[in-house]
UniProtKB/TrEMBL annotation:
UniProt superkingdom: Eukaryota
Biological classification of the source: Eukaryota, Metazoa, Ecdysozoa, Arthropoda, Hexapoda
GO terms under cellular component: membrane
InterPro entries, per the entry: CRAL-TRIO_dom (IPR001251), CRAL-TRIO_dom_sf (IPR036865), CRAL/TRIO_N_dom_sf (IPR036273)
Protein name according to UniProt: CRAL-TRIO domain-containing protein
GO molecular function: phosphatidylinositol bisphosphate binding
Native organism: Photinus pyralis (Common eastern firefly)
Length: 317
């Protein structure tokens, strides 16, 4: 008899949603009915379904595809989504590599701003897949804390990044991450700002260009300074020229999140697709099985020519 694992905690929101979306019961029921016809997908809470619906602006087809992508990628990319013990040696090391934090105030549009700043280190010998795993763990905890928000703005400050960071990148993990962010991450991503750009940003962009869809290219902005043009100074840490607490002070929140989400993160490993129960084989998803490489779908194969030209034309503010 098959053993059904029942998580002890609430997912994907540890504290639950404060308010459920109004007038969306029909949308919820339609997705629930569809999931019941997909034996390979895990049973998830109504709140989990609302997360996907909200991120897809309640578009039914996009929601179904995002759910499929989300649980399949998580099942078939264990280097990024398995062994989510936040106190493991590898995750403790990843925490020391970068400051990760939310800015204390939102944008005028109501968007949450999340910053990632690699710390200055002489030794760049990190495991790239571990760094991506830590990034995804932090993102999951932020989603749980925030609930359904209007949108996210991501800022990556690369002032401390060196060529040594680039040579540690592994293509299978990079492909998996880029596919996940573009096809499965259940948030409304509004902008990605790369600040304190340096000489090797062009090499990095050439590396990831074939993996970027035109929609994501439209969100990318590059800046020579620490604060993106047009964003209020009071939102940013003092050590970056703003008026908020310092980057190190803001990143202390990660320590609290690790303690709060330790058991919860381990339980998230239950929410994956079960390939042995997939009703129809022979789709591109079957190519995931037993491999950490992500195979692009038919839409991704269209990336090239026009989109890469658009990427090359991006200017640094």
């Amino acid at each position: 008899m098959e053993r059904k694992i029942v998580p002890k905690l609430r997912h994907p929101f540890l504290n639950g949603l404060k308010e459920l979306p109004e007038g969306r019961t029909k949308d919820l029921k339609e997705i629930r009915s569809w999931m019941e016809t997909q034996p390979h997908l895990p049973h998830i809470s109504d709140e989990y379904i609302y997360l996907f619906l909200h991120s897809c602006f309640y578009d039914q087809e996009k929601t179904r595809q995002t759910i499929e992508n989300y649980f399949t990628i998580r099942a078939n990319t264990p280097s990024l989504f398995a062994d989510r013990n936040v106190y493991s040696d590898s995750m403790e090391f990843v925490t020391k590599l970068a400051c990760s934090f939310k800015l204390p105030t939102k944008t005028p549009e109501g968007y949450t701003v999340v910053m990632y700043i690699p710390r200055e280190r002489e030794n760049c010998e990190y495991v790239f897949s571990d760094a991506i795993k830590g990034f995804c763990i932090y993102n999951d905890s932020i989603i749980s804390e925030d609930g359904l928000v209007e949108g996210y703005v991501v800022i990556l400050d690369i002032k401390n990044m060196k060529l040594g960071h680039l040579v540690r990148i592994t293509l299978p993990a990079l492909r998996a991450f880029m596919t996940y962010i573009q096809e499965a991450h259940p948030v409304r991503l509004k902008a990605i700002h790369v600040t304190n750009t340096n000489a090797f940003i062009k090499q990095f962009m050439r590396l990831i260009a074939p993996m970027i869809r035109s929609e994501l290219i439209g969100l990318l902005r590059f800046h020579r300074g620490s604060i993106p043009e047009g964003m209020a100074l009071e939102m940013f840490p003092k050590d970056l020229g703003g008026e908020a607490p310092t980057t190190e002070e803001l990143s202390l929140e990660v320590v609290k999140l690790k303690e709060k989400y330790h058991e919860w993160m381990i339980e998230t490993e239950y929410f994956v697709a079960d390939e042995s129960k997939r009703a129809r084989k022979g789709t591109w998803w079957s190519l995931f099985s037993g491999s950490n490489e992500i195979v692009p779908n038919s839409d991704d194969r269209q990336i090239g020519g026009k989109d890469q030209n658009a990427l090359r034309e991006l200017e640094v503010d």
